[in-house]
Each structure stands twice: as structure tokens, then as C-alpha cells.
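Reopening this one. Same input as before:
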Amino acid sequence: MNAVSAPLGGVRILDLTRLLPGPAATLHLADFGADVIKIEDTGAGDYMRDFPPRVANAEAVSVNPAFEAINRGKRSIAVDLKHPRGLELLLGLAETADAVIESFRPGVMARLGLGWEALHARNPRLVLCSISGYGQGGPLAQCAGHDINYIATSGVLDQIRASGEPAVPNLQLGDLLGGALAALSTLLIALLAAQRTGQGRWVDVAMTEALLVNHYFPHADLDAGHLPVGGATLLTGGAACYRVYATADAHYLAVGALELKFWEAFCDAAGLSDLRPHHWSGGEVPGSVPARQTIARVAEQIRSRTLAEWTSAFDGVDACVTPVLTPAEALSHPQFAARGVVQHRGRVTEIGPLARMSGHALRCEPAPRAGQHSRALLAELGLTTGEINALLADGIVRETA
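Same output, byte for byte:
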């Protein structure tokens, strides 16, 4: 499939973001055929290339697998945006682009000469998507933060509990749900509007705010006059039908029998038929003493057998019961193998695309080296070889072979 016939073929995105949220958003755009151009500085470039720090005794690798996976299929130009000539080059690229996505602190783009007004003046159809922790305005706008801060401020971390205390998840909910996916969806909405009207928009993505928007059930509890307590509500482990249970061999079983029919099937397969009436839909309030007693009965029963024995017992039973897999076990699961979602390129595990789409297949092309496509992109802007060589010699643009 050629680039133009891909779903986003012909769409050009200038990506000034670093680390995880922005690059993850543009990864999905690149996976569906967009020409994503990483705009990196002439120094280290995107410091995701060396983050997280590599284990000291690990065999040396030339690339960071996380960076490779998140930046596949993109191109890179390294340019000094603080130099007037570098700024003009970026504005020239913006004239050819459909969208610019950035994740600097609010105000940085304007100080660089790349604010909404400057970009819109050069390309009225351009969409500018700004990703930040707390948005372009408000009392926290200039505050630094990371995923843990965003999920804490939005109330999400309070609801994720282990042994009664907030537990840090190893899925970056703020960066990915609040940042990458919120940016991806709203940027595409703005692109659709620009396609129809000829006018671009400025999309202000606040990661904490997007988390707040998606935290439906705790907000509904509050509206109903109930205080949502992490670990004691229906969807946080307060009911026997929706919990994780330890098996005899220190593995875990995930039970998601929210509907009564699934709970009854679970009870029968687990040898707990007498617990059939003890379901939240029958009036057993999650987090209550009766609910805790039911949980204790189920936990005792699940601890009596190994994970393999329980997997066999629930084979073919429609009860929403699954083993808790490690990341390595998940990658090798037959379900993902059957759908071809996991591919290996050397040391890098490529996973995707985000969803299947008819007439489109994922092509896993390596992530770019910083400035790898500088010369080619400048040539596309119409610069001569002499002009390009002068920019490289002056350090305004960097090229990595």
C-alpha cells in the first residue's frame, strides 16, 4: 500500500513533542499513514531516546526499545528554533502541514515565535494541538508534573488501591488516556472541521482535565450522595463478583462477573453454588460486611487450587474469568498471535495498530535517528544543496546519517 492510499495518506503532522504523550498520539497517526515529522533540537533531541535509564548491566543496545516502539514510521529534522533562520524553516514546514502538535509549557511556543497567531497567519487551515498537564490556563498551568501527579490531581489515583493505599499503576493513564488518546481524538476532530471549513483550530489538551472527564463512575457516586472509597466500590474490588483472587501457586485470577448470569455461572464452576444469591444486583452492597464475607469465602476457595486447575475448571464457562497474565505472557497469548498484533523487529517489540481498519495493514518502519531526514525535508521545501550545506555548516540544522 502506498502512502497516499493509506487512511491518513497525504496528511502531514509536525511533532514538536517529547517523551510519551505526544509521541504516542502521533504514533497512531503514523500507523495509519500520516507523514509525521519529528521536530528535534540540534542537541540531544527527544530525550525519550534515553529514558527510562537503561539497566547498568544490560547488554549494550544502539536504541531505546521504548523510543523505537513509540516513534516508528516517523521522520526527523533537527533544527535550532531559537535561531531566526531555524524559526523560518519551521514556519515554512508549517505551511505544508495539516497540524502541529506540541507539549511545551504554556507560553513557550509563543516565545519561540510559533504561537497560535503566528502559525494561523502562515497557514489558516493548520490545526495546533497543545498538550500540557493542566492546560493553557488556570492556577496550575505553569506547574511541572508527570503521570503520577495528573492521576493524583484528577482523583484517579485515589481510586486505585492495594492493601488500602493508593497504588501506582504501570499503565500511564494520565500520559496515554489523558494525553495521547485525548490529543489524538480532538486533533482529528479539528482536522475534520478544517477540511470542511478551511479554518484550523487551536486544541488545548489538559491531561488532568481529560482524566477528570473520563472518571464517570466516581462522579456518579458523588451525584447520588455516596462517597466513592477506592477498594470498596463495585468496580474497585468492593464486591466478590469483580475482584482479583490469589491462587494456590501465587498466581491470580481476575473475576469480572458483574452481571448476575455470569456470577451464577462463576459460582457453579467454582463449587460455590450457595453464593449465587450473594450478588450486588440482589442487594448485597459493595464494601459492606456481607460483601466482605462473600469475598472471604471466594478468596478461600480460589486459594485452594492452582491457576492451571482453575483455568481448566473455567474452560468453556461463560463467566468473565481470566488468568492475570504477566506482560511476557500477554505478548505470547494465542489471541494476539491470531490477530497479528505483535511483531518483532530485532530487539524491538512492535504492537499495533490501535484498531483494525479494512484495506490497511501496519508497516513497522524503524524510528528515525535525530535529524535523519533533515536534508530530505529541506530539499522538499525547495532549498538548494548549497543552502542546505550552509545551514548544516552553521549548526542551524543537524543531520544524522
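So the earlier flakiness isn't reproducible anymore. For the record, DSSP finds 17 helices and 14 strands in the chain.
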